[in-house]
Amino acid sequence: MIKVGIIDDQEILRHGLRMLLGSEPDMMVTGDGANGHEAYQLCRQGNVDVLLMDVKMPEVDGVEATRRICRDFPSVRVIILTTFDDDEYIFEALKHGASGYLLKDAPPAKIAEAIREIHRGGALIQPGIAVRVVQRLRHMEEVETPHLEQVTCLTEREKQIMRLVGEGKSNREIARELYITEGTVKNHLGNLLAKLGLRDRTQLAIFALRNHLV
User: Fold this and answer.
1) Is the Cβ–Cβ distance between 193 and 205 less than 8 Å?
2) Which listed residue, 10, 13, 22, 62, has the most CB atoms within 10 A of its CB?
3) Cβ atoms of residues 214 and 163 within 8 Å
4) Which phi and psi angles does 142 have, rounded to 5°?
């Protein structure tokens, strides 16, 4: 059972997401809140696997909450809830450890599948604003990312998988494209993260994008 937390200052949105996710057989909403401080407290209780987090909130916004949560509770995966005009927040949240983002008007099935993908260790870059994210990331200064020279230690298969991760593809899609199993993809991803000293596949995607490997 995936334990989900919902953080948004709009009560009607929290209620709607509770109703939506409550109907999923493999999910349980274990708490919600209206700001980043309440998000942190929810994680502190140890009762959340995936956190849906708004960015523009009072007291503590979603970016600062993401930074604190990814630092102090590394097992919690954060999905940013955003709108088209939240670019700056998205970039900062990804930099601080968010595993991806969803537009607030995403179809219900997309939200549920995104939670499953993130819980499996995947990353999520929704096509609607992926192009703008790619453009921005490619012009960001390097922040705690490996030197490009480290790519030379990777196998050709690992480089293929890194490029596909940078394109936002899931393990299943990568496995299908390369004619290998999902288990093999996971093994390669583990090796990639270890060799490059990265935390998760989102950081791997950012590294690939910022160094023009995609």
Assistant:
1) no
2) 62
3) yes
4) -65, 130
Answer yes or no: pTM beyond 0.90. Answer: no
How far apart are the C-alpha atoms of 32 and 43, rounded to whole Å?
Answer: 10
What structural domains does the chain harbor? Answer: 2-137 (3.40.50.2300), 148-210 (1.10.10.10)
pLDDT in tens, 150-200: 778 888 999 999 888 877 788 888 999 999 998 899 899 888 888 888 877
The answer to whether 178 touches 161, Cβ cutoff 8 Å, is: yes
CA atoms of 52 and 67, how far apart (whole Å): 14
Give the distance from CA 156 to its chain's centroid: 25
Among 25, 121, 47, which residue's Cα sits nearest to residue 6?
47
29 DSSP β-pair partners: 4
Length of the chain counted residue by residue: 214
